[in-house]
Design a protein that fits this description.
Helices cover 73% and strands 0% of the residues. The chain is mainly α and 301 residues long. It has one domain: MetI-like fold, CATH 1.10.3720.10. α5 packs across α12 and α12 runs parallel beside α13.
Length: 301
């Protein structure tokens, strides 16, 4: 009787043991991340950029589309960064430019993660001809130069913020699919997946509820490292006229506007270039910190 009375409590005890273990792993990961000074610096800069994007109407001293001075007028106390090629306040345009950069970077990466995780999980779990077909699609997508493929799709679909997000999202998922496929192939033969199959759990539920949660760590790391690259792609498309369109404030558009005046008015291209560089660097430092925090064995030191 004693043995049977203890049996119903066993799952509760196991769950109680698992929850403190997960909290302990999270605390250890946070401590490793917190000790990485470069990662903390990257995180702080990203928080600053997010604040700029959210509170742009409050932080920008002027309307970013309003012409208020002559072309390339010098900086002053009221206009710390000067003016662009047609007399708009450059500081206001750079502040507002954080919005499309973050929207494209975060949303396009999210789209890539969703597609890549689903394709990779299905390919790795089922194997066989499904894996062969999906793997060939991934290989074909990775064989195309990314920027050339983006330019082709942007020219066909037409330039806009939505188009930029969609085309980057649907062309950048292959790297996530490869990582997820490899991890799922290693996990699908483990005991907990075998037990789930034996109890009659459907394949879709096994993939979504059992496999995907166990491979999110590498995906999060890859996504945090990839956002900076997406921001560069958005700036490149806007610079070439196939991304965001004027008069929308965008770092890539500001670079394009100042291209013809780079010798006479170098400040027009200097400041947005610095913002792109710092933002991409911050995402890379943050991604490196997340990688080291989640898997300290991956550190190079």
């Amino acid at each position: 009787m004693a043995a049977t009375s203890m049996h119903p409590q066993t799952p509760k005890l196991a769950l109680a043991k698992q929850q403190p273990k997960r909290r302990s792993e999270f605390i250890q990961a946070w401590r490793r991340f917190r000790n990485n000074k470069l990662a903390i610096a990257g995180l702080l800069f990203l928080l600053l950029i997010c604040a700029m994007a959210i509170f742009a109407p409050l932080l920008a001293p002027y309307d970013p589309t309003e012409i208020i001075a002559k072309r390339g007028a010098e900086a002053s106390a009221a206009h710390p960064l000067g003016f662009d090629d047609i007399g708009r306040d450059l500081l206001s345009r750079i502040i507002y430019g954080t919005r499309p950069a973050l929207i494209v970077g975060l949303v396009a990466t999210f789209v890539s993660v969703v597609i890549g995780v689903l394709v990779g999980a299905i390919s790795g779990y089922f194997g066989g001809w499904i894996d062969t077909v999906l793997s060939r699609i991934v290989d074909t997508l990775m064989a195309f130069p990314t920027l050339a493929l983006l330019l082709l799709l942007a020219s066909v679909l037409g330039p806009s913020l939505t188009t930029t997000v969609v085309i980057i999202g649907i062309t950048s998922w292959s790297r996530f699919a490869r990582v997820v496929r490899a991890d799922v192939m290693a996990l699908k033969e483990t005991d907990f997946v075998t037990a789930a199959r034996a109890t009659g759990v459907r394949n879709g539920r096994i993939i979504l509820n059992h496999l995907v949660p166990n491979i999110l760590g590498p995906v999060i790391v890859l996504a945090s490292l990839g956002i900076g690259g997406v921001i560069i792609l958005e700036a490149a498309l806007s610079f070439l006229g196939l991304g965001l369109q004027r008069p929308t404030p965008s770092w890539g558009l500001i670079l394009a506007d100042g291209r013809a005046w780079i010798r006479q008015l170098p400040h027009i291209t200097t400041y947005p270039g610095i913002m792109i560089f710092l933002t991409v660097l911050a995402f890379n430092l943050f991604g490196d910190g997340v990688r080291d925090a989640l898997d300290p064995k991956q550190r190079g030191d």
